[in-house]
């Protein structure tokens, strides 16, 4: 089988070996996205066997914290010491964490092993995006957007179904063990066919920067996870975490201006496009993960849909996202133009979220499906284009930190989206329940504003109807907030500058872009392209 390595000349067609590497990368991407969704379905069974219900949230939180904190560090390690080694190391750590999690004998062990798994997961998505950035010029990269969007849609739809099937037939431990064969296949393919230049930086890793960034990100994620649930937003614990997080992040930014080899070199933010894409990615994460949390809840509680097939309820949104992402990728590859997609995508996202905010107890499944499809069309224009433009805005030596920073902003956006939209939803549900069902309504939603199907079925008719109105009111507030936040992405998109994509070929006479820039872009794209080696 041919090796894959950067070539001196840009080929007309990607060789078979590149497609094999892409297959391995998509498997790894699937591992990263599927994990939480599969494990979430298995959680009731896990608690039933291991106990420790009071620590249940930490099974997810430990993984999320470790993933978010390690993401930028993996990106920097790849830039300094070589992409292939860093990526394979992250897969190995993820698989070790998966194996240990499957062997856990109590909740404390499971939480610790999930943190190990999260440390590896932080390098999975970053490695996938950065290696694609190394192998394929941005102009050609659009063709593979549909593949990545398809993996994302498949993970979101199939995750709960796969998790339920595995847990019911093989036991919850296989929710973790299932990662092992997939990860081993990915490792074998990458080891066999991917050959990137080895790097050996003389600079030392910025340990102080890594610690400050980890403390800052951990504090932010804990605030968004605990705020309004474990602790009141105005509680001393949340205030302490906010103070620690702000101080750590300010200290991190200050130190990055002085570190010899900064974890996140601040010069990448001098690129207007990179900064704008980071902002748009944050908002897309805010909206998307908020939507995927509240839409199934609305359809189950108000429209009476089955919780068993909760992933399928998102099919209109995810299907539209997949189609649009494929179209956007093809158009970008054929024309080299991309500014239209953030603009159109942001506008569709605003409109779609506003439409979702109009849903009430009488909205049909067809109507809500159309509204979801509008949001999905917008998402499809944004999800991969943000990474493409961000990578196009930096030099090859910063590909890793650009990929990890963009991924981190999207992750933080999802944390803020779930927390803020969730707080608004819970507050509105409790208010409406108190208005419509009095003391009984307040008691029902005292512990949680999200009732499961079993609890909902046991309610008296009047209380159940009150809860349906309350959920409609809660989703109205949450999606209206999402629409307002999405306006920020629309405004940011207006200021995106359409810089020629690297690898786009020679500049035509009369083009507006600077010819020197075009030559540099073409040269960089040629060096990044992949070619077969006998």
From TrEMBL:
GO terms for molecular function: transmembrane transporter activity. Belongs to the major facilitator superfamily. TCR/Tet family. Gene3D superfamilies: MFS general substrate transporter like domains, Multidrug resistance protein D. This is Transporter. Residues 503-534 are annotated as: Disordered. It is found in: Cell membrane. Its main location: membrane.
């Amino acid at each position: 089988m041919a090796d894959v390595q950067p070539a001196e000349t840009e080929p007309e067609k990607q060789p078979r070996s590149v497609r094999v590497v892409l297959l391995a990368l998509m498997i790894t991407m699937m591992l990263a996205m599927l994990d939480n969704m599969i494990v979430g379905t298995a959680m009731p069974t896990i608690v039933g066997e291991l106990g420790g219900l009071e620590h249940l949230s930490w099974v997810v939180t430990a993984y999320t914290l470790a993933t978010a904190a390690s993401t930028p560090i993996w990106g920097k390690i790849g830039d300094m010491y070589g992409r292939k080694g860093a990526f394979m190391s992250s897969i190995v750590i993820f698989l070790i964490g998966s194996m240990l999690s499957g062997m856990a004998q109590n909740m404390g062990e499971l939480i610790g092993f999930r943190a190990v798994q999260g440390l590896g997961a932080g390098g999975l998505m970053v490695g996938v995006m950065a290696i694609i950035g190394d192998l394929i010029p941005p102009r050609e990269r659009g063709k593979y957007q549909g593949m990545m969007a398809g993996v994302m849609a498949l993970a979101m739809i199939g995750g709960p179904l796969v998790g339920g099937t595995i847990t019911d037939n093989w036991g919850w431990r296989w929710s973790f063990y299932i990662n092992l064969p997939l990860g081993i296949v990915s490792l074998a393919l990458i080891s066999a066919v991917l050959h990137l230049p080895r790097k050996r930086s003389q600079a030392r890793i910025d340990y102080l920067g890594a610690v400050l960034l980890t403390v800052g990100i951990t504090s932010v994620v804990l605030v968004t996870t605990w705020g309004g649930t474990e602790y009141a937003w105005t509680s001393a614990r949340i205030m302490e975490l906010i103070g620690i997080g702000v101080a750590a992040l300010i200290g991190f930014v200050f130190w990055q201006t002085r570190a010899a080899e900064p974890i996140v070199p601040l010069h990448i933010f001098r690129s207007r496009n990179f900064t704008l894409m980071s902002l748009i990615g944050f908002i897309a994460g805010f909206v998307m993960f908020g939507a995927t949390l509240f839409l199934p809840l609305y359809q189950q509680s108000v429209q009476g849909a089955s919780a068993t097939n909760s992933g399928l309820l998102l099919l209109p949104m995810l299907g539209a996202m997949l189609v649009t992402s494929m179209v956007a990728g093809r158009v970008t590859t054929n024309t080299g133009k991309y500014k239209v997609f953030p603009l159109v995508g942001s506008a569709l996202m605003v409109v779609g979220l506003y439409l979702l905010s109009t849903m009430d107890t009488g909205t049909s499944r067809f109507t809500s499906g159309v509204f979801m499809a509008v949001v999905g069309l917008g998402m499809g224009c944004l999800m991969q284009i943000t990474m493409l433009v961000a990578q196009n805005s930096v030099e090859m030596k910063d590909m890793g930190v650009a990929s990890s920073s963009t991924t981190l902003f999207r992750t933080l956006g999802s944390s803020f989206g779930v927390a803020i939209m969730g707080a608004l939803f819970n507050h509105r549900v409790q208010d409406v329940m108190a208005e419509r069902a009095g003391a009984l309504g307040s008691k029902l939603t005292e512990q949680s504003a999200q009732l499961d199907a079993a609890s909902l079925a046991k309610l008296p008719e009047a209380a159940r109807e009150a809860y349906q109105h309350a959920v409609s009111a809660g989703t109205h507030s949450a999606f209206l907030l999402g629409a307002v936040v999405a306006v920020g992405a629309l405004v940011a998109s207006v200021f995106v500058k359409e810089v020629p994509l690297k690898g786009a070929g020679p500049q035509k006479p009369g083009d507006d872009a600077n010819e020197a820039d075009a030559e540099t872009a073409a040269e960089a794209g040629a060096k990044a392209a992949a070619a077969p080696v006998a």
